[in-house]
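Sanity check

After download, print the first record. It should look like this:
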Amino acid sequence: MRGEDGILGGYAGRILVVSSIGWAVIQVSRRTLPALLPTISEELAITPTAVGFLLTVLSATYALMQYPSGRFSDRFSRKGPLVIGVMLSMLGCLLLWSARGYGGLFGGVLVIGLGAGIYPTSARALVSDLFVARRGEAFGIHTALGDLGSAVAAGVALAVVSLATWRSAFLPTAIGLGAIAVVIHISGQETYQVGRFALGFKETFGTLLGKASVRRVLVAYALYVVVIESVIGFLPALIQLEKGMSLMIASAGYATFFLRGSWRGRSPDD
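Expected structure tokens:
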């Protein structure tokens, strides 16, 4: 880390580190599931269609929660959505840890998707609030740590399946998320605020969709996200089930995908 005058010095640097580590651990909770899906499918006898539905629920809840989360954080504070997002992700991991059938698996995936969707918009807004002249550098650190978290998920999957059951992967992640929630709670200077607020869909989307240039960007980005989420979600299963390769090779390929993004300072999620 740099000195007090560097980007990681002082209050802003401390919050950057805490929020980025929080995003990294949330990514572990979110990305461990695809790496373990072949093992989970075999044990619980889940069909490919049911697996695809789980990944759709995970991605859909992650996407749908980002707008209201951002709206809430603009109206009240960044701190609340950060802590809520981490706590929901922790709860989702505990549900997966205790899952004994498809219902428990579905519930855990749903709650992780909610938590993972609530967190990033507020985290990035907070980073943007704290850094102006070096905002790009701050976002580079933030997204790089998120990709490292995704890469760690592959290692977690490999280690757990080798030593224990797939459920065991989610307990240490839940514990880590609980610790992060405490650190965010005691580190941030903002207070918790709650209240009614308007989502403003008509106003916001009317402004966005009223410009042809913005519409083109939104369509292009939406198509990119659909493709990248499909690749990420099914890559480990494709390598193992379709190509007949080992979990070790599948995990290495999955990790390399995110490590490459981390090295470039650009997240596949972005």
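If your output differs, re-run the checksum step. Summary of this record's structure: The CA atoms of residues 50 and 82 lie 31 Å apart.
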